[in-house]
Amino acid sequence: MKVLVIGMGAVGCAIAIATANAGMETAVVAREETAKAIRANGLKRTGIFDEITVSSECITVYENIDQIEVEYDYIAVAVKTMANKTVADELAKNRNIIGRNGKIILFQNGWGNDETYLAYFSASKVFNARVITGFERTAPWVTKVTVHNAPILLGSLHGENTKGLEPIAKAISDSGIPSEVSDELIQALWAKMLYNTTLNPLGAIMNMSYGELAGSGHLVGIMNRLIEETFAVMKAAGYKTFWNNAKEYQDVFYSKLVPDTFAHRASTLQDIEKHQKTEIDTLNGCIQRLGKKHNVPTPVHDMIVELIRGIEDVRC
Fold it and tell me: Which pLDDT tens digit goes with each residue over 220-276?
C-alpha cells in the first residue's frame, strides 16, 4: 500500500516511520530544510518506545504537492491546523494523487478540521485520528515519543465504513505505538478536546509541564473551570464524550490522565519556543466559537485565547 504524509512535524514523522517500517511505500511532503535533512539522514524515532531508524532510501521526499504524480491509498495530513485551507486546496487541485479508494486521514489537534476538506471531498474520503501520544521533534528528521496515554484511534465522524483504515492502524501498532480503528471517534475527539483545552495552552502560558500545572491549587481551579465550560458547550451543541459531566471527568483527569503525562510539554509551548503561530483557534478558540453560537458563556476559555494571542503578537 502507498502512504503520503503531509507535514513532517513530530506526529507526521512518527506516522511516516511507522508506515515505512511496515513495508508500505511511503512518501512525505516537507519544507525545504526538513526535506534536505530527510534525504540525507532518513527518519528516526526515539523516546519511550523502541527506537526505529528508517533509511532515506525508503522515503520519497517532496517539497510541494503539485510535484507528485503517484496515486496513494492513504493521505495522512499532519500539518498544523492553520495550514488546512492551503493543503485542502492543493489536494483538490491534485485529486489524481488520491486513489479510487484512497482516504485522507487528519492527524491533528482540535475539532472541526474535517470541514475544510469536506468542502472538496465526500465524507467517504475524509477520516480523522485521535492522537493522545506525546511527540517532540528533536531534529528535522527525528521525533521523540515523550508520553503515551491511550491508543491512536482512527475513524469516521460521519458514519462511513472504516474497515479500510485497518492496514494503517496495524502499521502504527506494529511500530510499537498502539493504534486501532474506532466507531466512537466523536466521543474520543471530545475527550481529547477536554484534555487539550485544559492543559495545552495553559502549559504554554505558564511554561510548565502538565504535572506541574496540577501541582498548584490556583491552577487546578482554573483547569476545573475550563472543564466545566467545555462540558456546558458540548451539552448545548449536542456532543457527548465518555463522561456524563465535569465532575466525572475531573476525577479521571487528576487521578489518571495528568499523572500518565506528567512530564509532557505542551505543543503550544513548543510552537511558541519556535516562534510559530499556535493552534489556539482549533482548541480553546473552537470552544469559544461554539459557546457564542449556542449562547453559552466561556469566560475562562476567552481569557486563555487572548493570552495566547498576546504571546503570539510578541514572540511569534
Answer: 999 999 999 999 999 999 999 999 999 999 999 999 999 988 988 899 999 999 999
Q: Give the residue from 145, 130, 110, 149 showing the smallest Cα distance to 257.
A: 149
Assess whether 228 and 258 both reside in one domain. yes
DSSP string, 122-156: -TTTEEEEE--SEEEEEETTEEEEEE--S-EEEE-
- End residue of a domain, out of 130, 164, 183: 183
**Which CATH number covers residue 285?**
1.10.1040.10
The CA-CA-CA angle for residues 279, 240, 189, to 5°, reads 35
Q: Are residues 44 and 67 in the same domain?
A: yes
Note the pLDDT tens digit of each residue in 128-141: 999 989 899 999 99
Per residue in 31-61, pLDDT (tens digit) is: 999 999 999 999 999 999 999 999 999 999 9
Look up residue 257 and give its DSSP letter. I
pLDDT, tens digit (0-9, with 9 covering 90-100), for 87-122: 999 999 999 999 999 999 999 999 999 999 999 999
Residues 22 and 112 in one domain: yes
**One-letter amino acid identity for 121?**
F
* DSSP per-residue codes, 264-298: PPPHHHHHHHTT---SGGGTHHHHHHHHHHTT---
Quickly state the pLDDT bin for 149 (edges 50, 70, 90): confident
Tell me how far apart the alpha carbons of residues 248 and 76 are, in angstroms, rounded to a whole number: 34
| Residue 286 and residue 193 in contact, taking contact as beta carbons nearer than 8 Å | yes
User: CB of 202 within 8 A of CB of 257?
Assistant: no
State which residues form the domain around 205. Answer: 187-315
Question: Last residue of a domain, which of 165, 183, 201?
Answer: 183
